[in-house]
Amino acid sequence: MGRNNHLDWTERYRPSNLSEIIGNGSAVKQLRSWADSWAKKRPKKKGAILVGPPGIGKTSAAHALANEYGWDMIELNASDKRNASSIDKVVGHGSRSDSFSEEGEFRSSARGELKLIVFDEADNLFGREDYGGAKAIVQAMRSSAQPIILIVNDYYELTRRASGVKKLAMTIYMEIPSANQVLNALKIIISKEQIEIPSEVLVQIAKNSEGDIRAAINDLQSIAHLRPDQMSEVVMDLGWRDIPPQTYQVLEEIFLSKDPSEARKALIRLDETPDKFILWVDENIPRVIKDARARSSAFDMLSRSDIFLGRVGRRQHYRFWAYSSELMSMGIAVVSGGKFDVYSGTIRRFPEYLIKMSQSKSRRNALKTLISKIAKEHHTSSEVARESIIPYIRSLCISNTEFAVELAMELELQPGEIALLLGVESDSDEVERIMNMTEGADRSSSEDDEGKDRADRCVEGQQLSLFEF
User: Fold this and answer.
1) Confidence (pTM)
2) Nearest C-alpha neighbor of 350 from the set 420, 283, 447, 445
3) What is the pLDDT of residues 416-434, one digit of tens each?
4) How far is it, in rounded angstroms, from Cα 466 to Cα 277?
5) For domain 24-173, is the CATH number 3.40.50.300?
6) Degrees to nearest 5, angle at CA 328 with 326 and 330
7) pLDDT value of residue 458
8) Can 24-173 and 179-238 be said to share one CATH topology?
9) Domains of the chain: which residue ranges?
10) Rounded distance between C-alpha atoms, residue 334 and residue 344, angstroms
């Protein structure tokens, strides 16, 4: 039945070098080119961004790169604290310190031996724990003497928070492996494990995974202890994984496919409503279709599609979605005809409208939580807090920094909430100064006697609240 089946096979069979990465030949070539520039001490880009959906091998590629080039690796993942000070510590002290390889070989930073710094899930920086992390990543890429890799699922979320990385890092898109490529990887694993699994079961696992290599290997390990006659039933019960085709892939199918019916099928498989997806098509038409006449025809198709969406809104007849979808998929495909010489990686423009809506949503959410905190503190309604209390608090915060710091500490305000009170952006210097002062105050208070309370704020026996003004 194989050896050590209780161990995690995704770790055991993690690629040891880049040649073992499943598929993604172009991405591997780009990654090697970037690493070679560091090995020659002439990097044009200090960082590399690995972009792609979960489970396709981005983190494995980073590990394989470090192993192939003999570099030590320093990794920060989502479970680590990734604020500005933590990142500075890693990029600064961590990258300069000496270490030993797994074989016990001494590696001296003084001799210029490189360390690969990896930020996993770099697009997921949020809350007070990671405050300042995005800005620190940009600064790290400017100043670091070591190669840096950012691993992201959503490239546009990263660049929205840290736009400076665009110029400082090489962006490498990793594609979803085909079912055959996943199948070949599973065959190699069962050969090394010396176990027998029916070929139809392996095929089903590969199909179920929808390109998620990690999921496929986990499924394989979960059935390895079963009898061959039990495996087929269990694999069918695992079901098809809810991993819809990626939006960018569907865009490529629409713009680059010579078969309009394939473009239509791709859009049908996408878990996105036509009223949302039309924004993606609209944003990317000018980037892909350079010919003015063809571009005009494409926008004409899109406007006809939008007419049907309008009818859905007015009449609530959702059958019109089908007409709208066909016009924005088959119609655009007929116009483009797959004849445009476009590198598929360029069809990745995120709709500006959605970006603005996302920014507005964050601001609205910050206002909602701020109102809730103040209403709770005053034992009053949200309406009273918004209309009668927040205007005065905002005025005090703008004119009195100490008051703003006290308020931020007492209500545990987030950067977005502080920004609303100060009337500035959440990544502004004013907000950063308030956040730094609250952190300094927190450290000072922790050094005080634990028994000391807020009695020193009492005036003539009456407790003075932040809100009594």
Assistant:
1) 0.51
2) 283
3) 889 889 988 777 888 888 8
4) 48
5) yes
6) 50
7) 41
8) no
9) 24-173, 179-238, 247-350, 354-463
10) 18
